[in-house]
Amino acid sequence: MENGPIVTVLHRDSAPASDLMAPVAARAEVRYTEAAGLADALTGADVLFLYDFQSRAVPGAWPAAGALRWLHVGGVGVDPVMFPELQASDVVVTNTRNVFDGPIAEYVLGQIISLAKDLPGSLRLQQRHEWRHRESDRIAGATALVVGTGSIGRTIARLLRAAGMRVRAIGRRARADDPDFGSVGTDLHAELPGADYVVAIAPLTAQTRNMFDAAAFAAMKPHARFVNVGRGELVVTDDLVAALRDGTIAGAALDVVDPEPLPTGHPLWELPNVVLTPHNSGDFHGWRAEIVGAFTDNFGRWVDGLPLHNVVDKSLGYVPG
């Protein structure tokens, strides 16, 4: 569209479907690019839509972004774009909050049930044609500690409560009567000893990087299980491996790891008390259309001069609650 804003869309492998992007194309010039062409596509662009929201290409292309006014991340985590030059700029950053809340909460509940009932162990016995009676744990009455009190953490807490679990949380501000979390604490190590399940969904910031280290795992119960749906870098991976090997904790379900993708031969592949998934806990059928819809809705607001949804506080690295 002549004389309209310029919108650059960074994708990998395939661009968003043209019919989904039609509301933007009707009001803007749209440039589609993969990472190698990002700098050229950013020249003169007003808006950058990170459809490939895990890309690390933006810092390298930043010198070409002199006209950029708004950057929209197609996922929830914005750590790939929280580099100093962008943080110091006037560019507004938004994310795609709420699209993945329900699917990730379902994943967490599913993994907790799977760990409690040892479904991976049952599958291994089945594959060996071995009929062995075993007992399992109940999740009703067990305590889950949700580390991260954003919208995904809230949705997780609601679903776990509906399944009969007791829920507590760790956040930036302590409070006693939160409608979803019950009590919210700020001291991770003080709360870990009371948890049967620990769910990591905190954003990755300087304060949360490596928060789950040897001392954190040592503070957990020996029968506790760890579920990570946040970022792999929240965890010191070698410390997690050691805790799982020596029985400091009973097991883990990991949708995110550090490094990612997990290299061939890494010990996490072989540990019998670990369930791994490839960073897809929120990826339901149709999720790509949902994230494009979230962007086109926000783009309409931006063009019309209305406040944008899900504006990231760049000093914090996430959308404040």
From TrEMBL:
This is D-2-hydroxyacid dehydrogenase. Keywords: NAD, Oxidoreductase. It holds the Pfam family 2-Hacid_dh_C. The keyword Oxidoreductase applies. It comes from the Bacteria. InterPro entries: D-isomer_DH_NAD-bd, NAD(P)-bd_dom_sf. PANTHER family: 2-HACID_DH_C DOMAIN-CONTAINING PROTEIN, D-ISOMER SPECIFIC 2-HYDROXYACID DEHYDROGENASE NAD-BINDING DOMAIN-CONTAINING PROTEIN. Residues 110-280 form the D-isomer specific 2-hydroxyacid dehydrogenase NAD-binding domain.
